[in-house]
Amino acid sequence: MDDTPAPSVRLTALAAVAPVSWGTTYLVTSEFLPPDRPLLSGALRALPAGLVVLALTRTLPRGSWWWRSAVLGTLNIGAFFALLFFSAYRLPGGVAATLSAVQPLVVAGLAVVLLRERPTGWRLGWGVAGAAGVAAMVLRGEAAFDLAGVLAGLAGTAAMAAGIVLTKRWGRPVGLLAFTGWQLTAGGLLLAPLALAVEGPPPALDAPALGGYAWLAVVGTLLAYTLWFQGVERLPVGALSFLPMLSPVVATVLGWAVLGQSLTVAQAAGFAVALVSIAAAQLSPASVRALVRGRTSTLAQKG
Question: Is 172 a member of any domain?
């Protein structure tokens, strides 16, 4: 039984800004960005923001933090973006989103090995429920399963999960902004030559595309990852690992509200299950019992 205290509501809300902003990526990409340029999009999200932060902070890694920054930047950004985009192009979006929803379970396994943290039945159960809720929300009956796409999606999920756990284990030797800049630069330097080799020179960009890239770089990457790394540092990894489920939730809501996509009863039910799973994972059985006792006491006094 997990009776550890619930994480800070304020810190959790700030960390949740990251997956909420990531959930806007599909809408921005489909409506404003040039088609068939996923690696370019990843490079433009990460590298300019990272270089700007390096120029502002004037802080470079030292000693072992050169290779540690490269590893974290690769896991959290470079490899994650590349594998995510590859998976998205080989699979229906719903399948790719469902693969990413297993992240809490992957983090739980890695935390045992690297952090010596035993997973609790409470969060493991909600991890399974959350993945099922996301699946109900985003999968369609005609969904196809491409083996290479599935493997890439799982590898991308594992990369980000490993990045979360290693960031927690290693901590950070400098301020949060400089630490974020190191990783954005490392991830962008991995993606930029890959984008040039695979996709060729970048196309001419119109005003909507420039605005879309600016949104993804400033809000969806620089702000999002700064808040995300703060959450990784100060929140329990088990609770934090549920927050990326907000990304497919937001993408689905935006598709319904902005693009006019339909939302079935099964999708609405999956939406509710995913949100409940995310919220429940931020609590513990002890805090739930306290909430129930407080609610019962309040009702009794009113009665």
Answer: yes
